[in-house]
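Exercise: predict the structure of this protein bound to cytidine-5'-triphosphate.
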Amino acid sequence: LAGKTAIVTSGPTHEPIDPVRYIANRSSGRQGHAIAAALARLGAKVTLVSGPVTIPAPTDVTTVHVERAEEMRDAVIGRLPADIAVFVAAVADWRVATASDQKIKKQPGDAPPALMLTENPDILKTVGHHEKRPTLVIGFAAETQDVENNGRAKLERKGADMIIANDVSPETGVMGGLRNQVKLISKDGVEAWPDMGKDEVADRLAAMIAEKLA
Ligand code: CTP
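Solution:
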């Protein structure tokens, strides 16, 4: 992948409720960071746009740290064009419509505050239909049911070349864990990979990307 540029999103996003509270999810960033590192090992110039994670940023990769989905979108769009984009981040689908700029306080006798949510931008979908669309656009699909059909629908809706679907039901241990079992969904059909470490998923995926762009 020498001479090729790649953007990878990874980790969760944090959507503020007030200065001290946020909405988040269980993503660790392990799969996204591993993919960024694997692409770099094959010679690509990689920008990793990462939400808040506790794992270290890979070496030989430019890492941009963001918190919110809107920041992640701006960081990604601002770095186009690129040859490859892989969207691994578990972006929060919703944010609090009007986050409070002061800590929300309990008042005696008050009802709990109601959180009004609004939809976040879909970063993959924006890039999949962008005038500077990368040659290869790959998304993930975090599902807890009907993995293949939901993955196929996302391929179409988001304008991706491939969707990597994984079952994130709690019993699989995928979200936050070290292993993953994925299904690669493209217009050519579905390829199921056996359960393996997230690093191995990343290496195989990077090799496949290199083959497609050769
Ligand atoms: N994604 C994104 N921006 C969003 C939501 C999702 O870029 N606001 C990307 C993810 O990084 C992933 C893909 O879209 O590559 C699918 O994410 P997923 O959470 O599975 O799908 P959603 O579009 O959120 O659909 P749903 O929650 O209804 O399953």
